[in-house]
Amino acid sequence: MKIDGTPYRSVWLDEQDGWSVRILDQTKLPWTVDILRLTTVAAAAHAIRSMQVRGAPLIGAVAAYGLCLALRADASPEAMERDAAMLGATRPTAVNLQWALDRMLAVLRPVASADRVALAYREAAAIADEDVAMCAAIGRHGLGLITDFAQPGRRVNVLTHCNAGWLATVDWGTALAPIYLAHDQGIDVHVWVDETRPRNQGALLTAFELGSHGVQHTVIADNAGGHLMQHGMVDLVIVGTDRVTRIGDVANKIGTYLKALAARDNMVPFWVAVPSSTIDWSVSDGVREIPIEERAATEVTTLTGRGMDGAVTTIRVTPSDSPAANPAFDVTPARLVTGLITERGRCAATAEGLRGLFPERG
Ligand code: MRU
């Protein structure tokens, strides 16, 4: 996707040296387009932990490249296992992280240390390229959900939560991919963008992405969605996900569950865009089995934004002695999900629906 006319992926190899890893620092967006150069596995782990990169598919791809950087320093089996475990511990909820590392290790374990670096870069590039292809396919399979509402003179209103656009993947995004495609095909699509406290990925990143692409959008407070649905102002909800269980439960950014409840009460379709790299076939009951990341209380007690003087600044928004809690994700039970949009097509959020599209998972 493009920023100011320049095409970007959200992770790529440095064109000059061919081995260091470039990312957009998402903690600086939308105020500054700051490109970072990662040269060590520690820097890659920090980028994931501090959310310089975030979004389930992207942290998987950056972890894969992080392992490449680790192997450049030490390609012995012991170091590889240690560094992969360190990368895997950076964020617990999005399954793409462990999925990418497991895929890398499965390829790298059987080969001699001397051959590992080249093979690792090849596999990381495949993970990144496949993510782009999966997201593009999700766009195609989700497009019909939007065109179903499109009529001459009628705007289609989609509500989304957090950022599941190209910044959260390698390119295109998951939930936003059908929206970009609809927009590019001339459909009058408008997006209600949940601000997504505490880190405001919607207000900062989704609004930035949609604006850069020329998609009509309106940022709303997280609490506004239910009201908009009650008044017929939302045709459908499309969100991304960090982990989907084999029966279709959906972990996503905190607050997603409340949107699904409001959508059900108002008979608004609630769709989840999910590449197969985000499906955890080993887990059934999402509420009990998916680990929910607990992040720093300061993400709740503070807000960062641009002051009227143009300077980016952080302010405290709670009394200084009030404690805060910060569960970063929640689980929407499958019964509240209208359906899943995968790279192989759409299906019900059920074990049978998923098995129908992925029969090899039995
Ligand atoms: O904490 P984040 O910003 O990494 O959380 C991101 C989300 O919850 C996204 O909705 C999810 O990863 C899907 S990204 C295509």
What does this structure look like?
There is one protein chain. The chain is an alpha/beta fold and 362 residues long. The protein has 2 domains: 2-131, Four Helix Bundle (Hemerythrin (Met), subunit A) (Up-down Bundle); 139-361, Translation initiation factor eif-2b, domain 2 (Rossmann fold, 3-Layer(aba) Sandwich). Helices cover 38% and strands 19% of the residues. The protein contains 12 helices and 18 strands. The strands form 5 sheets. It has a 7-stranded mixed β-sheet, sandwiched between helices. The longest helix has 35 residues, at 113-147. The mean pLDDT is 97.
Uncertain runs? none
**H and E string:** EEEEEHHHHHEHEHEHEEEHEEHHEEEEEH
Determine Rg (CA atoms, Å). Answer: 20 Å
- Oligomeric state of the chains? single chain
The beta-strand count equals: 18
Fraction of residues in β-strands: 15-25%
Largest sheet: 7 strands, mixed
Strand adjacency order, main sheet: 8-7-6-9-12-17-18
The CATH class designation of the largest domain is Alpha Beta
CATH architecture classification of the largest domain:
3-Layer(aba) Sandwich
The CATH topology of the largest domain comes to: Rossmann fold
- Report the total helices: 12
Structural class assignment: alpha/beta
Instruction: Give the helix level as a range of percent.
Output: 25-40%
